[in-house]
Amino acid sequence: MGHRFLPDLSADEIAARQLQGLKWTVEHAFAGSPHYQRTFREVGLRPGDVTSLDDLSRLPFTSVEDLREGYPLPLLSVPEEQVVRIHASSGTTGKRKVLAYTQNDVNTWMDMMARCYELAGCTPLDRVQICVGYGLWTAGVGFQLGCERLGAMALPVGPGMLDIQVQILTDLGATTLCSTASMALLMAEEVEKRGLSSRLKLKRGIFGAEPHTPKMRERFEALLGLEDSFDIVGMTELYGPGTGLECPAHDGIHYWADCYILEVLDPETLRPVAPGEIGEMVVTTLSKEAAPLIRYRTRDLTRLIEGECACGVRLPRHDKILGRSDDMVIVRGVNIYPGQVAEVLGRFPELSSEYQIVLTRVDGKDYMAVTVERAEGATGGGDEALAKAVGQVMHKSLLVSAQIRIVDHGELPRTFAKSRRVLDERQ
Ligand code: ADP
Ligand code: K
Ligand code: ZN
């Protein structure tokens, strides 16, 4: 296929690299990290015991609690002189997750990001507007690294600053926009408001960091005049953004199985789910030096997609990230993911993509209210009937009643980062 960064590997070749990487990782982590020495001893395993990929299932899990316990430099497996930088995640609860990188780690990450740009169709003639945070977060730096590796022109604006964003978009003729889905929507609405769409040269968007609905995506694709857009996945623990990219055939996300092993496990039993079923992503890195991950429980939910892909890329695929197990809320004993609410709202063309869930408790009973915007241009008439219809579909698919409130388009907060969908006021 003539890719510079994307490898064309058969399943056997991938398995061979995975076995080699797994053996290396286990030796390396055991030699360098007191944490891994302890967890290996707990399950009675020595690195030499790993001789086939099947042995992966015998290895101990690593969890987000392990990262917090090891704060500030969890899982560190190299001497400090080899660490060239750290990054941290936003860390919504408790201590931040801080992860260390060696130069080789940075280089691996850079190549993974270059693959993403390449798969999205970028070339050295593209101008890439990077509208995500730089600094401690991995996002800005990751997009920047890969862009430079590919040889495209980076326009490193960062998040927010809509005036500067639209100025750079139009004056520099950005062809590629990298942001969260929320930020893409915000920019799209700004461009529309200022009547600038005819001055844009955008061809594609690469957006990620949060789940989004097809509706949200259709809207910013249309307003920004994008020919195509791609969901990008990643997390701080696993280098940062760029661990996989939505395939050009839009049938799942190709992930870099020669850089990490992905297991999809039942979060209760920790056994593999049946092929194609949804489960928790559990990752094992194959060459990560500073903070190797062995069976790290990401808490993200997805499923593997079997079979050959129409786009011709032979690297395996997983589905888009369907949510985080931590996002799950329990309302009157029923497990609910925000994505399920979004899915119901998506069935109503009269509604926009933006919604917010508020949970309250009165007299020991849970109540769920969903505020949703009207689609742009939709008038306010018939709200009651619409709210009732939405409530009925919601009850049917979630088995919980929700009070539906319909507000004007643009009334819910827009954000530069990840949208906050659930306000839990029950504590
Ligand atoms: P945090 O959000 O925990 O501070 P990160 O900034 O590292 O940490 O974000 C990584 C997380 O963001 C992933 O574990 C996943 O839950 C979510 N995420 C990243 N990319 C996507 C995507 N394309 N779609 C849905 N969720 C995503
Ligand atoms: K260039
Ligand atoms: Zn594909």
What can you tell me about this protein's structure?
The protein is α/β, with parallel strands linked by helices and 427 residues long. Helix content is 29%, strand content 26%. The protein has ten helices and 21 strands. It has a nine-stranded mixed β-sheet, with helices on both faces. It has a four-stranded antiparallel β-sheet with strand order 10-11-12-15. The longest helix is centred in the N-terminal third of the chain and has 22 residues. The chain is globular and about 70 Å long. The model has no long low-confidence stretch (mean pLDDT 93). The site of adenosine-5'-diphosphate has 17 residues, from strand 7 and strand 12.
User: Number of domains in the coordinates?
Assistant: 2
Any idea what the shape is? Answer: globular
| CATH architectural name of the largest domain | 3-Layer(aba) Sandwich
Rounded to the nearest angstrom, the radius of gyration is: 22 Å
Poorly predicted ranges: none
CATH superfamily of the largest domain: ANL, N-terminal domain
From the 3D structure, determine the CATH topology of the largest domain: Rossmann fold
Distance between the termini: 55 Å
Q: Got a strand count?
A: 21
Main pleated sheet: 9 strands, mixed
Reading off the top of the CATH hierarchy, the class of the largest domain is best stated as Alpha Beta
Q: What is the SS-derived class? A: alpha/beta
Indicate the mean pLDDT: 93
- What portion of residues is helical? 25-40%
Which ligands are bound?
Answer: adenosine-5'-diphosphate, potassium ion, zinc ion
Order of neighbouring strands in the sheet with most strands: 4-3-5-6-7-8-9-14-13
Q: How much strand?
A: 25-35%
Count, helices = 10
